Amino acid sequence: MKRPITILLLLLLMAGTAFAQTPEARKKQYNLESSGLAIQGFDPVAYFTMNKAIEGKKEFSANYNGVDYRFASKQNKDEFARNPARYEPQFGGWCAYAMGKKGEKVEIDPETFKVLDGKLYLFYNKYFNNTLKSWNQDEARLKTQADRNWVKFVP
Question: Is the pTM of this model over 0.70?
Answer without folding.
Answer: yes
